[in-house]
Design goal:
Length: 116
């Protein structure tokens, strides 16, 4: 991956975090963490991986609320970026933390069974 693309991804991540925190007023979105941004080859589409920090299990509903605010988020992002065309944003639920917690649970269970 080119250095320019990596820089743009990190810049988009930083700006999106601030925009979602400061400008999205929908309370159903809740506490969101932008975990990663991946651009396609021509930087026209940005997959934005998000995770929700509070313990509610309505992540799909909250992701839909975030998608509803996508127009506002993209317009604010286009004003902050120095590139000619702002990429289309696709929000994706990041489940890697949940998978890592599940793997830790399995390892802990195996260690307990081994000690017996």
């Amino acid at each position: 991956m080119s250095l320019k693309k990596e820089r743009l991804q990190s810049e988009i991540l930083r700006h999106l975090t601030l925009i979602i925190r400061d400008d999205v007023k929908d309370s159903s979105v809740g506490y969101v963490t932008v975990t990663d941004v991946i651009l396609n080859n021509d930087s026209s589409i940005a997959k934005v991986y998000v995770t929700f920090l509070d313990k509610y299990n309505k992540d799909e509903y909250r992701l839909a609320a975030l998608n509803k605010a996508k127009g506002l988020i993209r317009s604010k992002l286009s004003k902050k970026l120095t590139i000619r065309k702002c990429p289309e944003i696709i929000f994706v639920l990041d489940t890697s933390l949940q998978k890592a917690n599940r793997i830790d649970e399995i390892i802990s269970q195996l260690n307990k069974e081994e000690e017996k």
